[in-house]
Amino acid sequence: MVVIGEKFPEVEVKTTDGVVKLPDYFVEKGKWFVLFSHPADFTPVCTTEFYGMQKRVEEFRKLGAEPIGLSIDQVFSHLKWIEWIKENLGVEITFPVIADDRGTLAEKLGMIPSTSTQTARAVFVVDNKGIIRAIVYYPAEVGRDWDEILRLVKALKINTEKKVALPHKWPNNELIGDGVILPPAGTTEQIKKREEQKVKGEIECYDWWFCYKKLE
User: Fold this and answer.
1) Residue tagged active-site, from 34, 35, 46, 109
2) pLDDT in tens, the chain (216 residues)
3) Which end of the chain is more exposed for a tag (fewer CB within 10 A), N or C?
4) SS3 130
5) How many CA atoms lie within 13 A of 208 on its CB side?
6) How many CB atoms lie within 10 A of CB 83?
């Protein structure tokens, strides 16, 4: 089973857009990707998730992140289900869906619970270098919140670009609002520098180990 910080396994997969190689398919375009699995096509909770993802797909793409679905159904099942969603719900699914009919990738990624033969609701956020940055799991009985996954992608990109951490419920944190957290000082010299920055009004601190600032 893979873990955060590892390279996404190199694999060739069948999708509704044809055969592609991961993670190269996205990395070569300089894109992040959000790989999410669902238990099965033509099921109610999964249908709500696909509908919800498509409603937010442009928000993910504005962040330079591409969604890609996965289940152990065959590709013709995906295509028929996507057709059903368009005809009955008025939404056209514009992201690819992996047909992992032998469960090869699902097993590599640890998507199949020991108590089931179906994939759980797993989410893998992978950056533009092919590194797994986040892994989230939900049970089959509970649908995901794509707004939270959007927040997660935004936060990870800010962390990558600005080298800051993001608080609980960012950008609506109860203590520091939309502020971002500076890495804790690790030396007496850094503590002194933080105190100077605080006096100058460049940052705010609850203590030398808990300093934050507005996102630049």
Assistant:
1) 46
2) 799 999 999 999 999 999 999 999 999 999 999 999 999 999 999 999 999 999 999 999 999 999 999 998 999 999 999 999 999 999 999 999 999 988 889 888 988 877 777 788 999 999 999 999 999 999 889 999 999 999 999 999 999 999 999 999 999 999 999 999 999 999 999 999 999 999 999 999 999 999 999 998
3) C
4) coil
5) 12
6) 12
Residue 157 maps to a domain:
no
Residue 48's domain spans which residues?
11-145
Residue 155 in domain: no
Neighbours of 29 (CB within 10 A): 11
> Does residue 32 fall inside a structural domain?
yes
The alpha helices in 63-137, defined as continuous H runs, are 75-89, 104-109
User: Residue 23 maps to which CATH number?
Assistant: 3.40.30.10
Is residue 154 one of the residues assigned to a domain?
no
Q: Sign of torsion, CA 80 108 68 47?
A: positive
- Is position 46 annotated as part of the catalytic site? yes
How many CB atoms are closer than 10 A to CB 19?
A: 9
CA distance 110 to 176: 36
Residue whose pair of structure tokens reads 């935004």 in the numeric block? 154
Per the listing, tokens 């990109």 go with 157
